[in-house]
């Protein structure tokens, strides 16, 4: 496991020794079983953190948002009415991200390059694939700048579908919009990001630049 | 070839490119789009760059958190709102809305003076309310000579009837009701709108809380 350096041994045992379905863990957690709740945290913390990281462009803020998400999730667990737990958690994370934006309104924008460079998070793959290597470094930062330049609602759907790999239905549930709306929002977001990247042709891989 | 000269048509096809990449179009749309792409180089270029953009996003390296977010101990859970508190909140809301409606109604002249204090007056204040009610009734009698005079003097009956007709829309029987003016209607409307806004705001807040 590539990420073991960031997860404690206890957490690993939580993650891999047993694999009960979400529903049974949720039921136990709703009865106050902290161990069951922490198993759920283990299961989804990377996704929650990563979505927040891409949404905010800052690893420290993303950690705060992730912690806040699980705290809110614990407090609101009685209100979880089934469906996709991941979508529910990401919806809480999305609201927590919006709270960060609201609290920082009027202050320096989050998209400052210094934030990205100074606070880079650890990455998952010590042996990146050729594709991953292509988007590391300056191109990766440019993609993040492009994401941060998008309107927040478009940024969120783009991150959920293209970065996180969620289905339209699950992403729509996480954002709280119908799948049809998500489809058109995603289409606009992709086109905008593409236009942003085309302004930096020198960074793009040859196949992209070719167009 | 004609398609090349129709920008609107291109726009429509380009809006389909993103769902096309995800396999979210139906067969008819796919057939039409592919047919168009075969003959339209700019749209082909659009699709290719869009596909590359999605590819780049999918191969972004995943950032990992530096720490775990498991909860070490049971966090202080916000105490559930006690039932009586909900009752009190509901009662307060109802009272506030009733008060607003009462004001609005009073301004609009739809409630008589007798109706206003009746519901809440307990045994101790019943007497006061009665005496308070008595005064305006007496006042009303003295202020309304036309009907009394009409009974006594038949010669003034025609004039009195005309007077009564003129007064009829604003006053009923012996009650002294405030005349309705545009300003009062506006004030009443404003209060009613305020009550509605309060209601909607509360509902929105509650929904937001439910969403966390």
What this model shows, in words?
The complex is a heterodimer of chains A (211) and B (212). With 211 residues, chain A is mostly helical. Chain A is globular, with a radius of gyration of 18 Å. Chain A is built from twelve helices and no strands. Chain B has 212 residues and is mostly helical. Chain B starts with 6 loop residues before the first helix and ends with a helix. Chain B is built from eight helices and no strands. The N terminus of chain B is likely disordered. In chain B, helix 6 packs antiparallel against helix 7. At the A-B interface, helix 3, helix 4, helix 5, helix 7 and helix 8 of A face helix 1 and helix 3 of B.
Poorly predicted tracts of residues of chain B: 1-5, 121-126, 137-152, 170-175
Q: Please summarize the sheet with the most strands of chain B.
A: none
Quaternary state of this entry equals heterodimer
CATH topology of the largest domain in chain A: Rna Polymerase Sigma Factor, Chain: A
Strand content of chain A: under 5%
Query: How many domains in all of chain B?
Result: 3
* Overall average pLDDT of chain B: 69
User: How many E-type strands of chain A?
Assistant: 0
């Amino acid at each position: 496991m590539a990420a073991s350096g960031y997860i404690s041994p206890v957490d690993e045992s939580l993650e891999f020794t047993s694999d009960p379905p979400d529903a049974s863990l949720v039921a136990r957690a709703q009865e106050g079983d902290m161990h069951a709740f922490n198993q759920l945290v283990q299961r989804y913390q990377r996704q929650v953190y990563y979505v927040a990281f891409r949404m905010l462009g800052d690893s420290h803020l993303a950690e705060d948002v992730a912690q806040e998400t699980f705290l809110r999730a614990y407090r609101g667990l009685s209100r979880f009415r089934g469906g996709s737990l991941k979508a529910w958690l990401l919806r809480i994370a999305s609201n927590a991200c919006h709270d960060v934006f609201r609290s920082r309104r009027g202050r320096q924008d989050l998209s400052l390059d210094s934030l990205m460079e100074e606070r880079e998070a650890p990455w998952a793959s010590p042996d990146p694939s050729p594709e991953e290597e292509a988007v590391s470094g300056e191109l990766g930062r440019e993609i993040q700048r492009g994401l941060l330049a998008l309107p927040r609602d478009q940024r969120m759907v783009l991150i959920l579908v293209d970065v996180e790999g969620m289905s339209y239905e699950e992403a729509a549930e996480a954002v709280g919009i119908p799948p049809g709306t998500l489809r058109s929002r995603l289409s606009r977001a992709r086109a905008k990001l593409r236009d942003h990247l085309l302004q930096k042709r020198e960074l793009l891989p040859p196949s992209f630049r070719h167009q | 070839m004609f398609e090349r000269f129709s920008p609107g048509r291109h726009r429509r096809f380009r809006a389909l490119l993103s769902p096309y990449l995800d396999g979210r179009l139906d067969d008819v749309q796919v057939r039409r789009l592919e047919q168009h792409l075969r003959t339209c180089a700019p749209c082909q270029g659009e699709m290719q760059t869009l596909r590359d953009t999605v590819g780049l996003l999918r191969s972004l390296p995943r950032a990992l958190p530096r720490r775990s977010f498991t909860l070490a101990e049971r966090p202080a859970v916000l105490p559930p709102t006690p039932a009586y508190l909900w009752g009190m909140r509901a009662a307060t809301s109802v009272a506030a809305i009733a008060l607003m409606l009462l004001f609005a109604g009073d301004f609009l002249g739809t409630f008589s003076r007798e109706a206003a204090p009746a519901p809440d007056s307990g045994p101790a204040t019943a007497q006061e309310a009665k005496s308070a009610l008595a005064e305006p009734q007496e006042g009303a009698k003295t202020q309304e000579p036309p009907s009394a005079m009409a009974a006594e003097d038949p010669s003034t009956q025609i004039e009195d009837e005309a007077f009564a007709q003129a007064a009829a829309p604003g006053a009923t029987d012996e009650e002294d009701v405030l005349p309705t003016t545009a300003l009062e209607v506006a004030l009443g409307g404003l209060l009613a709108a305020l009550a509605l806004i309060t209601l909607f705001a509360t509902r929105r807040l509650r929904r937001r809380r439910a969403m966390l």
